[in-house]
Amino acid sequence: MRIFARAHQLPPRLAVAAYMLHSGADMAGADEERAAGLHGMAAGAYPFLGSMEPMCFIRLLSRAELALGAALALPFVPSLLAGAALTGFAGGLVGLYLLTPGMRREGSLRPTQQGIGVAKDVWLLGIGLGLVLEELARCGAPAPRH
């Protein structure tokens, strides 16, 4: 088995993996009320989700978080792939923050008390982009000479 993650990438990958695995497992046991609340917030920001059943939405979200957490935790999953998946997922969360009324202070990016829980997900976007940009930069770099 070939290891694709570099040693310095493991701490952020494992930190995010732990967070995603916990969140995905927690969401797997969500009841109808929680599913309806999360689905309603997501559908408010992304109207195409409105036609989906809340329990189906929460199951898919749970599975996505579990899969993403596993991809980040397993060092043989290339950092470019894991980082791209994390960037896409986190981009959706940041979009949710930006598009949901009441999450931000009027005319500002600063969160309201209600928005703090979602605004903090910007760290996921930063880690995902860091993994992607590092791997893309390495692809363009000349091979070291020995």
Description:
- There is one protein chain.
- The chain has 146 residues and is mainly α.
- The chain has one domain.
- It has 6 helices and no strands.
- The mean pLDDT is 92.
- Keywords: Membrane, Transmembrane, Transmembrane helix.
Domains (count): 1
C-alpha end-to-end distance: 25 Å
What is the radius of gyration computed over CA atoms, rounded to a whole number of angstroms? 17 Å
- By DSSP, the count of extended strands is 0
Mean pLDDT: 92
Elements, N to C (H/E): HHHHHH
Task: Determine the fraction of residues in helical runs and give it as a percent range.
Answer: 55-70%
Number of helices: 6
Oligomer: single chain
Q: Hey, roughly how much beta strand do the residues contain?
A: under 5%
Structural class of the helix and strand makeup?
Answer: mainly alpha
Overall outline: globular
Largest sheet: none
Low-pLDDT runs:
none
Transmembrane segments: 80-100
Keywords: Membrane, Transmembrane, Transmembrane helix
Characteristics of this structure?
146 residues, globular
Write the layout of secondary structure elements.
Elements: H1 10-28, H2 32-45, H3 54-73, H4 79-99, H5 116-119, H6 122-140
Task: Provide a concise account of the structure shown.
With 146 residues, the chain is mostly helical. The chain is built from 6 helices and no strands.
